[in-house]
Design goal:
This protein is of the alpha/beta class. The protein contains seven helices and 14 strands.
């Protein structure tokens, strides 16, 4: 498959690298350990063209500036979390880390759902709030994979006890948007192992009875 999963940092947050036949690459959620990520990109001879953020919690953004500087590429984030990158009180680092995470402003704000293209990569973006107000899920139909951030996990869902979290809204996001995707769709989760839409429909205990 043309994507890599790299668990990074103390929370083992999954960064994903999606590539094409030209060795161009999209980086999702470079949360930490920029040296490790850059080394892997060089080993694979990949040429990053953009950073896409599923949301702006600290464990998903910590290496953004290092990667952006290394490759001179733009960063995309939801308009709903525009100021989270530079505010530890919002990105969670002020609460959970000794060293606050402060990232430069994103180059582009994602303002709506629907078709979205970066280079030759064509996605469908779903606004999937609940874990955070600006959570985005990126569906890459060409390879049948959804980059879901911390919205949907294998046998679990994202936590909703952080600022801006909403349990009912998260369940609504999953049921009305993600579960309509083909059951064989791979789900590239923000933490832990990958899963599929079908597997979560059949056995995720958080999704029954909604």
């Amino acid at each position: 498959m043309p994507y890599l999963q790299l668990p990074l940092g103390p929370l083992q947050t999954n960064a994903y690298v999606l590539s094409n036949e030209k060795s161009e690459a999209i980086i999702f959620d470079p949360g930490s350990e920029s040296d490790k990520l850059i080394r892997r990109l060089k080993e694979e001879n990949l040429k990053p063209i953009a950073i896409l953020l599923t949301h702006a919690h600290f464990d998903h953004i910590g290496a953004v500036d290092d990667i952006r500087k290394e490759y001179s590429i733009p960063v995309y984030v939801s308009k709903h979390e525009e100021d989270w990158l530079a505010k530890p009180s919002k990105n969670g680092s002020g609460r959970f880390l000794g060293d606050p995470v402060v990232i430069d402003a994103a180059d582009h704000l994602i303002t709506e759902e629907g078709s979205f293209k970066v280079g030759s990569f064509a996605f469908h973006i779903f606004h999937t709030p609940g874990h955070s107000p600006g959570s985005l899920s990126y569906y890459y139909k060409k390879e049948n994979v959804l980059f879901s951030g911390d919205v949907l996990f294998s046998q679990s869902i994202g936590r909703t006890d952080l600022p801006g979290g909403n349990h009912e809204l998260l369940l609504k996001s999953i049921h009305t948007k993600l579960l309509d995707l083909p059951e064989q769709t791979y789900v590239a989760c923000g933490h832990g192992q990958m899963t599929t839409i079908g597997m979560e429909m059949d056995s995720n205990p958080f999704l029954s009875g909604f």
